[in-house]
Amino acid sequence: MARISYSQSLSNAMAEEMRRDSTIILMGEDIGHFGGAFGATCDLYNEFGPERVMDMPISEAGYVGAAVGAAATGLRPIAELQFTDWITIASDQLVNQAAKMRYMFGGVLSIPLVLRAPVGGYIQAAAQHSQMFDAWVSYVPGLKVVLPSTPIDAKGLLKSAIRDNSPVMFFEHKKLYDMVDEVPDDTNFLIPIGKADIKREGSDVTIITYSFMVHKALEAASILEKEGISAEVVDLRTVKPLDKETIITSVKKTSKVLCFQEAWLTCSIMSEVAAVLAEEAFDYLDAPVKRLGARDAPIPFSPVLESYVLPGVNDVVNIIKEMF
């Protein structure tokens, strides 16, 4: 085990996989000498050189399209967006090409592409640098969507994503890059895509969440415990495919549930989770399913307004107390 940051865990995962497999290449803006906007590619350029760690121009459509083509012709590219907001620019390459090529060619080729992108708010970066588009891409068949919440999950899930033969959208919350924890040194340490994790055991209410909101949920659970409410925290880790079994098993135990996310609720991941519970776990519920997410507005630049629009720990505590 090594005590390292989330960003270093990502860097270690990519380095280990690149040493194992010479077909893995990196593409993105400022990922070379600069080491990436959030430091996740530090030192990779020095070890693997410009042929495998390629600085790209400010053209997300161009280099994501190049990554899709590289994946189709035998390489295993990892493309990095500086901010997930620019996934809109590369949407045709992802939605109409990467997600569909394996199907349209009858399985003759695969697209082993990983798209890494920083997501989320809480850093006063304003409306065009604070969004989460995980629900957008989860809507599209053919794409897998991963959002690790800890350094250990970041390493295990990124290595699994790199080895996967399908395109994987790998979203990293900007507030997590500096988080430090114990991470296995094992070069074969993998966490399977599509498997949720119980981050805290509880008996009275289930909080289903993912990404940075896991830590807000854990903080809320500690507060609720002092008031006699035992909250279980389920970290989805992967939102496409969704681990229905873990979700339903937890709700069967607690009979109450809060579906909690950072992003807007309309047509969201937690809308899908709530639908799954209504269809497959309704008889186990003692109270209506509750959802919590951002207010339906662009993310403000002002710290005061941002904290009003985005959900916080007190919001979690209050909505759960209402259930009792």
Walk me through the structure.
The chain is α/β, with parallel strands linked by helices and 324 residues long. It folds into two domains: 2-183, Thiamin diphosphate (ThDP)-binding fold, Pyr/PP domains (Rossmann fold), CATH 3.40.50; 197-323, Rossmann fold (3-Layer(aba) Sandwich), CATH 3.40.50.920. Helices cover 36% and strands 20% of the residues. It has twelve helices and 14 strands. It has helices at 6-20, 44-48, 60-72, 91-98, 101-104, 134-138, 151-163, 213-226, 244-254, 269-280, 303-309, 313-323; strands at residues 2-5, 24-28, 53-55, 76-80, 114-119, 144-146, 168-173, 180-183, 197-200, 205-209, 231-235, 238-240, 257-264, 290-294. The strands form three sheets. A seven-stranded mixed β-sheet has the order 3-2-4-5-7-6-12, with helices on both faces. The protein has a five-stranded mixed β-sheet with strand order 9-11-10-13-14, sandwiched between helices. The termini are far apart. The model has no long low-confidence stretch (mean pLDDT 97).
What's the topology here?
Blueprint: E1 2-5, H1 6-20, E2 24-28, H2 44-48, E3 53-55, H3 60-72, E4 76-80, H4 91-98, H5 101-104, E5 114-119, H6 134-138, E6 144-146, H7 151-163, E7 168-173, E8 180-183, E9 197-200, E10 205-209, H8 213-226, E11 231-235, E12 238-240, H9 244-254, E13 257-264, H10 269-280, E14 290-294, H11 303-309, H12 313-323
Parallel strand pairs: 2-3, 2-4, 4-5, 5-7, 6-7, 10-11, 10-13, 13-14
Antiparallel strand pairs: 1-8, 6-12, 9-11
Helix pairs in contact: 1-7, 3-4, 8-12, 9-10
